[in-house]
Amino acid sequence: MYSRKSWGGDTDPFILTTLDKPKSPPDQDVFVSLVVFEYRDEDLVGVWPSPAALEKEYICTKPNIDKKYCNSTQLGEFILSPNASDSKSQILSTKINLKELEAPRYSVKKTGYYCVSSSAFSDGAQYKGTVEFRNAYGKLPAAQIAKLPFYAGITIAYAVIGIYWGFLYIQNRHDILPVQNYITAIIIFLIVEQLMTWGFYDYKNNHGFNAGAKIFMTVDSILNAGRNSFSFFLLLIVCMGYGVVKPTLGKTMVYVRFLAIAHFVFGVIYAFASLYITPDNAGPLVLFVVLPLAGTLTAFYVWTLSSLNHTMKDLLERKQSVKAMMYKKLWWCILASIVVIFGFFFLNSFTFAERSSPDFVPRHWKTRWFILDGWLNLVYMVDIAYVAYLWRPTANNRRFAMSDEIAQDDEGFEIASFGGSVDEEDARSPTREELRNAGSAPTAGGKGDLSPVPPKPMSEGGAGGRGQRASLDGETIFAVGEDGERWSEDEDESPRGSSERQKLTGKNK
After folding, report:
1. What is the pLDDT of residue 207?
2. Does the predicted model carry a pTM greater than 0.90?
3. Which long-range contacts (CB under 8 A, 24 or more apart) does 408-412 make?
4. CA 82 to CA 71: how far, in whole Å?
5. Nearest CA-CA partner of 3 in 13, 11, 16
6. Predicted pLDDT of residue 31
7. Given this model, what pLDDT does residue 495 score?
8. Are residues 446 and 484 in contact, defined by beta-carbon separation less than 8 angstroms?
9. Which of 108, 149, 328, 445 is most deeply packed, by most CB within 10 A?
């Protein structure tokens, strides 16, 4: 329970205990003992008969009155320690008459883990009741209220990612890769899914867990299964190089889609089984729910990692260093996520090792939701944002995807400017070896018909010669440059009427 000061609200928080009306009202007074206290005050409830006693005396009975554990006015109530009044939280000890059915109301002034205990005081008393823990902010359990602002924040974060992605998508809408359409779809899906999750907790907080909340929960479970399947599908086709290394996956895409659909179906079955089957009622049939989902999940893991390794190996063999670096960053992202997940599980194992302790839930009820659910959503969001950043739309998407980087060997060989290197190659005279390989005999005297022309001097820059081509290293993934414009300009560097061109073509005017 949270105090009104902690989360705000319109009403003061309280704990209300209501006993159901018996089918056959008793002819005489029948009492039920009731106590409400904060968990840290457990030692103040009941008294030890002796230092060597194994159990406390909890109920004020006539024998306990005679032993001075309580007084006659407390008959039928829980026994409290003499220093119970020193507690910072109120301790309510009372008795309820089943003939009158009073509903004791306990006001919560401080945030804490509150306990309610009851016992039949009169012989043969049978009763049923309901305990309502009502917080000031609404009807959502105190252990889940933190999910309300958390999922609202996650929804806003995905919306910001979607706005940024949408801006780039519209700006470069004529140069979009197929894989970027899938990323667009999953971003929109995530915004809707997180909005529905936030809506479920908001509805439950305002209306309680009624039929509408159950419908919300069912829809949210289906969307969650869809998110998992869509995410694994997207990661797999990205690791296969779809859109960047391969323009199409062919029949492989059909198999990937079948695997994603199967994972979605098994995920929905698992979600419904988790909602309507408690662990106590789960029998051997639960294996038919868990095993198919585990099988498709394993298939995704193995296929994704092997595809990523194959794509990186292929790019490195073809010396596509820029694209290879792109997939290497993705590999580091996946590795970092795995390390974070296993590291978090390892640290939590020490915490959950104490779950058999009575103090486990009272000490961790505020943060248990984050350990079980919250941090995984954060890791997932970071991964999606990073993949979207690597594959973001730019002005040269298709040009980058459909072109291969020129292989460069580091053997003392340096590539000059594109324009200058072409002119040099066209202007030099062929050697004897080249003529022999071409099947042409040299002229008398061993001299060729073409007179050698000295190559054009390489300049640092300017109209006469382009500077050395800037390396692709360090550029963004889809930034290719303006080579198309340079090629058209280089064609005009040697005018048709120049003496140099006339020598090369053999035309003299």
Report:
1. 86
2. no
3. 408/319
4. 12
5. 13
6. 84
7. 45
8. no
9. 108
Alpha-carbon gap, residue 305 to 303, rounded angstroms: 6
Distance CA(96)–CA(114), nearest Å, equals 20
| Per-residue model confidence (pLDDT) at position 318 | 78
Tokens (6 digits) for 322: 């820029």
User: Do residues 110 and 55 lie in contact, with contact meaning Cβ atoms separated by under 8 Å?
Assistant: no
Q: Quick one: tokens of 122?
A: 């009169």
Q: Are 132 and 139 in contact (CB under 8 A)?
A: no
Tokens at residue 423, please? 């002119």
Those residues of the chain that have pLDDT short of 50 are 409-429, 435, 438-509
Could you tell me how many residues make up the chain?
Answer: 509
CA distances from residue 440 to 138, 429, 432, 435, 453 in whole angstroms, order as listed:
95, 14, 9, 5, 20
Token pair, residue 431, equals 């050697």
Residues 6+ apart with CB under 8 A from 332: none
DSSP single-letter state for residue 427 = H
Return all residues near 91 (Cβ < 8 A) that are at least 6 apart: 35, 36, 37, 38, 41, 44, 45, 80, 84
